Amino acid sequence: MFNTIGNVTKDILTEKDGQSFDITKVIWVIGTLVYFGCTFYDMIKNHASFNYLNWSVGFAGILAAGSAGVKIKETTEQNVDVTSNQGPPAANVTTVVN
């Protein structure tokens, strides 16, 4: 079961090649977890009342910013053929011998 959860998490957080982690997705997940943590801390430690409208507007901002970051990052990803187990093509290197 934990292996499956790990695979799903890796699929969500990696780029098209399935190996290299996408920094925008990782930061998005960390930001979301910090938002939840700060909310619970404020409610438990400070006995703050929970305002649904303010909380949902803040969370919508996190989701929108994360989505925009992933969409912008998508244009920089290389197109990798995931069916052939090969990475991106190597650069053409020419060697000159004198």
Summarize the structure.
With 98 residues, this protein is mainly alpha-helical.
Could you give the topology of this structure?
Layout: H1 2-13, H2 23-45, H3 52-74
Helix pairs in contact: 2-3
Written description of the protein model:
59% of the residues lie in helices and 0% in strands. It is an all-alpha fold. It has one domain. It is built from 3 helices and no strands.
Total beta-strand segments: 0
Tally the structural domains: 1
**How many helices does DSSP assign?**
3
**Helical content (DSSP H or I, runs of 4+):** 55-70%
- Could you report the average pLDDT, rounded to the nearest whole number? 81
**Coarse morphology:** elongated
Biggest β-sheet: count, sense, barrel?
Answer: none
Strand content: under 5%
- The N- to C-terminal Cα distance equals 60 Å
Provide the low-confidence segments as ranges. none
Q: H/E series, N to C?
A: HHH
Find the structural class using helix and strand composition. mainly alpha
What is the radius of gyration computed over CA atoms, rounded to a whole number of angstroms?
20 Å
Give me some keywords for this one.
single chain; 98 residues; mainly alpha; 3 helices; 59% helix; 0% strand; elongated
